[in-house]
Amino acid sequence: MGMGMSCLVGMVLSHPSCTPTAMTQETHRTVCWYPPSFDVRVEDVAMPRIEHPDDAVVKVTLGGLCGSDLHIYRGHGGIDKVHTCGHEFIGTVHKLGDNYGSNQADIRPSLYKNLKVGDRVVAAFTVSCGECHVCHVGYTCRCPHGLLFGSPFLNGGQAQYVRVPKAGATLFNLENPESILKSLTPDKIKHINDASLLILSDILPTGLFGAVQTLNHPKVKAIWEGKGWPGVFFSDADADPSANAMNEEDKFLTIALVGLGPVGICALVSLLDLIWNLETRSKFRYRIVAVDLLESRRNKAQAVYDRIQHPDKGKNGDVVVLGGDLGELKEKVMEWTGGVGVTAVLEAVGHADALELAFDVVRTFGAITSIGVHGAVPIPFTGRQAYNKNISFDFGRCPVRSMLPRAFEILVKRQDVFGEIGTESSLIDRVVPLNQAPEMYRKFEKGDVGKVLFDPWK
Ligand SMILES: [Zn+2]
Ligand SMILES: [Zn+2]
């Protein structure tokens, strides 16, 4: 802790991405993960270089510490290779490969033509090419060229510099926000600070992704639209109208949000924003029960909910924040839904216990969306149990490229939550020098701090 850059330059380092650095070699400061677990170190290693003509090197202004970094930190990733941590970063373009410039073909993503050294950029937490079938469909997080920053395969952004493969489709140019979403004029974003913009890298698009998958699921849509699934699939013009008749009481959308860490907070804000929007299309009541075992996280969720003013959080419903042990939580949710269970669960933890809670509190014909990063532990229910409840599941990583434009809109609108640092209702807890990484990893792992960002130049 607290070692300055000068005393580290010239040390013999074991970081795999570089050979031991000599005094004369250009280095940069990074946070490195060491196996087997609970060991991150601040080290100076060789500067990243352009390795492919599609690459960019970004000078990082802020790098985020994220809940999914903890899976590797705890040694749950099945990884034994030392690497630079962090998959969330914002910065400026430092170097560009040869495939950038005005002479590039129009068919490629526009950044290959327009991106310039010095441009302010934010990166999606996974690389995507933007040019393959998988990317075209919108599943950018599963692009065959995809790589996760801060993994053994690609050094991350808790560093002064980071190499970005396929940067023309992986980066977003903040100099020209209208290229991301037409309504985002430079004027609209000029007052938004880097700490706030950094959450576009992962957690806000991920929270929004969970909210979209939850609310747009046909079984969930059935409730807020008042058109019963699966009959609604067919034209009901000549069907008996009483066959799928929902009354106002039935149009009660209930969602359990499991996990109120930074991603859970982003999911909560996104759910409220989308529900506010859906209320213009259909009349329904809603209730979100937000659960976490940690009191500090529950307090944050309550403060965020209180901060958002009506009607931005919908007119016809509320959020109830619940704690207690898992058994108590199950009982409370079941009691509160009259023994039916909730319409949907959004699980933002990435632990088998959270999934078990989700399974137990979701109604029959319910939908579970899991955006938590799950490990090697088997799913805690059987095929028979799933059959007997007619459950739907959505798992997996957020395609940031597909979600970012709408997430950006929410970021601009919700600067009351996302624009401040270190207040009761702010998502971001603190911005600290990179040297504090080992301490912050320890505290974050214990739930003693909220969302932490590293400034690698302090
Ligand atoms: Zn993240
Ligand atoms: Zn692709």
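^ zinc ion complex. The longest strand covers residues 56-65. The pocket of zinc ion (ligand 2) is lined by residues 128-129, 131-132, 134-135, 143, 145 (CB under 6 Å).
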